[in-house]
């Protein structure tokens, strides 16, 4: 894929993050999010339209083309992988990590992003519980949900564990950490949740279970 400038990547990435249900993103909203003037946004979007990276519809807004969406997806993948690295390995706060990752995302080649993903254990979610686009662009990304939303018999992969440091440390000590497969054995309305983690049972109070974000597995993933 031909190299794209950092400025172009930012427009495509922000448009991708703002687009909902295939509807055009208003230029005024895009300009506001990028902190540029409407005139500058209009000029850049017309250029990206000419390059085949988005479709500009006067008085409506812009929509990404398949090529533009692929570029935005790759940039977002790099950003969120760096967020995981900075939080988990360097112990930065999620906000600090996001600020730095926004710089790294533009200078990280795809092969480096893939090595970073492998180093981190192929994470599926950022520290903010946002899905990380996989290298395989055809793969479906299932958004994470609170553990309490899973039904008995369901399985999921832990995306993140929130809460006070003591609670997080305790749960990780029980094997409940990002990337671990869990199965729901029993639940009760607003009551405890009984899990199977690494072959052992683990009971969690409802309030704590809500702080565990998991990506439910589809039937063909089990």
What does the model show?
By secondary structure, the protein is of the alpha+beta class. It has three domains: 59 residues, Winged helix-like DNA-binding domain superfamily/Winged helix DNA-binding domain (Arc Repressor Mutant, subunit A); 61 residues, Diphtheria Toxin Repressor, domain 2, CATH 1.10.60; 77 residues, SH3 type barrels, CATH 2.30.30.90. Helix content is 41%, strand content 18%. The chain is built from eight helices and eight strands, in the order αααββαααββαβββαβ. The strands form two sheets. A six-stranded antiparallel beta sheet has the order 3-8-4-5-6-7. A hairpin with a 3-residue loop joins strand 1 and strand 2. Helix 2 crosses helix 3, helix 4 crosses helix 5 and helix 4 packs parallel to helix 6. The longest helix has 23 residues. The chain starts with 5 loop residues before the first helix and ends in a 6-residue tail after the last strand. The mean pLDDT is 87.
Percent of residues in beta strands: 15-25%
Mean pLDDT score:
87
Could you say which structural class the secondary elements and strand pairing correspond to?
alpha+beta
Helix count, per DSSP? 8
Helix and strand sequence: HHHEEHHHEEHEEEHE
Largest sheet: 6 strands, antiparallel
Ranges with pLDDT <50 over ≥5 residues?
none
Binned, the helix content reads 40-55%
The CATH class of the largest domain is: Mainly Beta
Could you please say which CATH topology of the largest domain applies here?
SH3 type barrels
**What integer value in Å does the Rg equal?**
20 Å
| Terminal residue distance | 34 Å
